[in-house]
Amino acid sequence: MPAITSREPEQFDRTNAILAGVVFVISFIVYAITVQRSFSFWDCGEFIACSATLGVPHPPGTPLFVLVGRVFSMFPFVEDVSYRINYISVISSALTAMFSYLLIVKLVRHFFKADEAGSLSRLICYAGGVAGAFFVAFSATNWSNAVEAEVYGLGLALSVAIVWLTVKYFENRGTPAASRIILLVMYLAMVGVGIHMTVFLVVPVCAIFFILNERATARDYMMICVYAILELTFIMLFSNGRAGYGAFMAVSAILGIVLFALLWRKINWGILIAIMVCSSIMISFSLYLLIALPFGALAILGLAYLSKQYGWKVDWQVALGILLVGLIGFSVHMYIPIRSSQGPRIDENNPSRDFRTFVNFLDRKQYGQVSMSERMFERRGSWSHQLGRHANMGFWSYFEEQYSAGGWWFVPLFLLGLLGMVVAIFKRLEIGL
Asked: Disulfide-capable partner of 326 in 119, 190, 255, 352 (CB 3.0 to 4.6 Å)?
């Protein structure tokens, strides 16, 4: 199978830009019509109060959302301050729809070869992008998040933008623009943790494109996909408590070693180390700042020395840049102890008391001492609750409520989506060939 190669940067597409703008405007208008005129009951009221007064909300603090909310609260386009702050989600969710359109168009374009880039293929790309973007925009969960002051609207906008930038990175691989894109992606991922940690969940998928070098083939990408599917399967199989967590870690380590043995010549080790350092924030703030960051920097500097000695290509400058922009992005969390020390009206956990309190605040220790990854293996519901119909939990009920009024009406749409995925796989396994 031929190797994956990057395309030449595409020319500016005026029609594509206009349609992206149309998607944004329509989504914005609908959200603006349906936005909450005051505060909603649950976390929204807390976020609005903290944004208006520059307070410290519940761990891990969402400092970037609070700061953005403060800016929105200062623009008097409506009288109610809650109404103003709700517009964070209106604008960001409209951006989510727009970036979803741009992402879909880019992905669908990869289904066609260069000699197939005619009017029909362009129409298919545009129509698929518009349809997919509006499915994203007006799914039940996303629309709900788009009309109230919650972190998920802004977080999803960042997540989709990161994936879109990753595709642009792939199209520009081997150019200075690609290096700038990867730095921007990692900055957005780390600063996005200041909104919600789910922003970082797209990074492992995006990291595949950053870590593998130009020698990687479609077979190599497929091996990583198979590894990811096996990992998800093992999580389900071993979800029976602490013993299951230990078994999962052991099996994952063995499979990981095998995968690295097969791919080690096609890995950019400097980029891999830098992304692993940033990813450690998902486990623990103290792990990231006190262990992963200094040792990761030393490892990258060591690779830089060896690359000069033996001519290895490790992109150590970009790797160090990732560490730097990641730290700058995460530095938004310094708002928490600084503002807490000033005694705001809302100061949950008083994280400025001492460094340990601040670390525990960021590590969400008030929710329990067990790490999120370990707690994931403590099954707290039956399989029927998880996969069937169950309030706020069952996958079946979740999917049937996204695009229909419930019942079986969602099945044709679900099957259509599966068909599209299968066609995409068989149409073009290699991205960008």
From this structure: 190
